[in-house]
Design goal:
This protein has helices spanning 7-23, 31-54, 67-98, 110-122, 144-147, 151-156, 160-177, 186-206, 208-212, 217-229, 235-246, 256-267, 269-288, 297-313, 333-339, 344-373, 380-397, 408-412, 414-418, and strands spanning 131-132, 137-138. By secondary structure, the chain is mainly α. The protein has a two-stranded antiparallel ribbon.
């Protein structure tokens, strides 16, 4: 009989259950105020428990060399992956039928906006022009990696959400393939391979609009590539996922200096200089030269428009006057709306300042603890992953435009952490 190998593992699985539960079947279980706080604390607990369990293990799990055992592991990984892919793919197809991607953007402008970017680009038109919908105009704010991958969908004439699913599955399978090297049972391997599909099923069951209106699996897949790259040696391969993530969303910005400083400390200035040059070159090739250089105002206009979007979002109210986007049980932004004196702009301004401050504090804290423990046998790649998860938990917990789909990213970054921990004893 399999038994959990330590109380810390039990606590870890409990904290992860709280996190995913408060985003799905337990959402708003404890009201508008307590729910985001409990979910936030569960995210912090997940990071702390993983740190306690494996931050100083090198390697975290012994390698196996038995060929017959490896063959069995390969069969289990491929089988569970294919079953999960097909079952969730079927559910995903039903969601796509329920939430058509075509439309005027009144329910969600995410996919309609992506289509405009892509269709303009493929037709040779400059994509960073105002996006005109029925009754309103949206300024272009998406970085290229938010829309360029969907050229694949447009050329093959498939739903954009299938492309997001594919970009999620490829690095996920690469992460799961690494389970072959771990000295864990076939049962535990099957459970771990099934976990991300269980997470997706919970979203399908309880918040289908998160998958129906958006393509959040794409950023999750890009971050999975970043996770994989933390053990890579070549500077251009380390830089490649940094460019992908940096050119998708700006949430990564405050954590990037921590990552580069850590590379400097671990590999020397020459390596971090090479990585930085590759990143700079990637940003120039992907964004600056083909798009930004044609209109330098696009970037700043996008930032200004995003600020106005936040103001508008805080004014989306239900019939009872409650701000719709802030009462999803996920973000602390509701505290600033309800308990800070002054007009709406004053409350939003304070939320932005606290959000910025929290991000800077966490980023500085992650680097400080690395610096303090770097000579104590710290597993740097594991620690960086813990720090990234921690940073994103804080970033989105205090984010002032807390769309529900954004919280999938820190939640799914739990998966590669769990893959590093042995759940059960071998007895």
């Amino acid at each position: 009989m399999k038994i959990f190998r330590s109380n810390l593992v039990i606590l870890l699985l409990f904290s992860v259950t709280l996190e995913i539960g408060l985003q799905t079947w337990w959402n708003k279980q404890w009201g508008d105020y307590a729910s985001p706080t409990i979910m936030f604390l569960a995210g912090l607990a997940t990071c702390w428990l993983v740190y306690r369990l494996i931050a100083f293990e090198k390697p975290s799990i012994p390698m196996t060399v038995n060929h017959k055992i490896n063959v069995r592991k390969i069969i289990v990984i491929i089988s569970f992956f294919l079953i999960g892919t097909i079952l969730i793919g079927w559910e995903y197809h039903q969601i796509q039928l329920e939430f058509p991607s075509q439309g005027d953007g009144t329910r969600s402008d995410v996919i309609p906006s992506l289509k405009i970017y892509v269709q303009r680009f493929l037709s040779g038109e400059y994509p960073y022009q105002p996006l005109v919908f029925n009754g309103w105009t949206v300024m272009p704010t998406y970085f290229p990696m938010m829309w360029l991958p969907y050229c694949f969908s447009e050329i093959l004439e498939i739903d954009y959400r299938w492309t997001a699913y594919l970009f999620f599955l490829i690095p996920l399978f690469m992460l799961q393939w690494q389970l072959i090297k771990q000295d864990i049972s076939l049962f535990e391997i099957g459970l771990k391979v099934a976990l991300p599909f269980i997470f997706l099923f919970l979203y399908v069951e309880h918040f289908p609009d998160v998958l129906g209106y958006g393509v959040e699996l794409m950023p999750v897949g890009l971050y999975f590539i970043l996770v994989l790259s933390m053990k890579w040696k070549k500077s251009y391969w380390v830089a490649f996922p940094i460019v992908l993530v940096l050119m998708s969303r700006y949430a990564f910005t405050f954590w990037l200096p921590v990552y580069l400083l850590t590379i400097w400390m671990e590999r020397g200035f020459k390596d971090v200089f090479k990585v930085s040059l590759w990143v700079l070159g990637g940003v120039l090739v992907v964004y600056v030269i083909p798009f930004l250089s044609k209109n330098w105002d696009v970037f700043f206009e996008g930032l200004a428009y995003y600020g106005k979007t936040a103001e508008t979002a805080w004014q989306w109210q239900r019939e009872d006057g409650r701000p719709l986007i802030l009462i999803n049980g996920l973000s602390h932004a509701i505290y600033f709306y309800d308990f800070v004196d002054g007009d709406l702009m004053n409350r939003l301004r304070l939320n932005r300042l606290v959000h910025l401050g929290m991000c800077l504090i966490v980023a500085a804290g992650v680097f400080y603890y690395y610096w303090k423990n770097r000579k104590r046998g710290l597993n740097v790649s594991i620690y960086l992953l813990i720090g990234l998860k921690l940073y994103l938990v804080v970033f989105y917990s205090f984010f002032y435009v807390p769309f529900s789909y954004l919280f999938m990213l820190p939640m799914f970054l739990t998966i590669p952490l769990l893959y590093q921990i042995r759940f059960f004893s071998n007895s």
